[in-house]
Design brief:
single chain, about 280 residues, mainly alpha, globular
Length: about 280
Amino acid sequence: SGQRIPLPDYLPTHLGFSAPRDIRNHLMPLLCNTAQIGDCIDMQNVFHGFAFDNICSVTFGVDPLCLRPSLSLTRAFDDATHISFDRFFYTLPHLWKLECFFNVGSEKRLHEVIMVVDEFVMGIIRSRSEKEEGHVREDLLSRFMAAVMANPELVIVGCDGEGTLADTTDVLKDTKEEEEEEIFLFSFEELKSMHYLYVALSESMRLCLPIPLDTKITASDDVLPDGNVVRKGCFVSYGIYSIGRMESIWGNDCLEFKPKRWLKNGEFVGDNPYRYPVFQ
């Protein structure tokens, strides 16, 4: 059996260091500069770039500075994801393979963005391969490479988690009541006590979730609750976006942004993962 890298102990510690640093050095200067010149800014793009920077910092130990609009790394990742996903919706399943073979259409763009991503990742891997005497890096890539050298049969266990924030301005006042320090001074333990922050994020992801559609592959023959039979190896897709707006699940106000629906006696209460499959 393979070994496992203890990611749960590592991630909170490293994120607790990198996130405040990125807020202080990159996010706040960007917002302050935008306010000073009286310009407008797309906060969804800002949060997307900020989250991407944090993930790269934790995973690779580098900051790609994707808050800078001139950089195309996040766009390359997004385009690669979207084009790969669109392959499932071709009327003729093998059409995308022809486009790939002749390097035309969306497959040409996919080839271009994969080169951008590969160049970024391989450049980091090459730099890690060069031993740095007296210096031990703490990012996931360095840990993984060191563990692989010690045991080639390593099994790494991790999870994907990405949140999308959008249109939560109505709850800023309530969230601010929980603040006692500047935002970049919050620790993970302090964040755990902010129940209204939890409910605001949960309600945001119910209506504006990061992944609106998910697909599973059946491991064995099964029967759905409505009686439909699915055979082993079948693709089963479900619309998480629609589930978050179903009146039968969330009531008559299912289309309204109401964070307090997640509160019970002033504390955050999570919902059934089958009713709220955002993290499935």
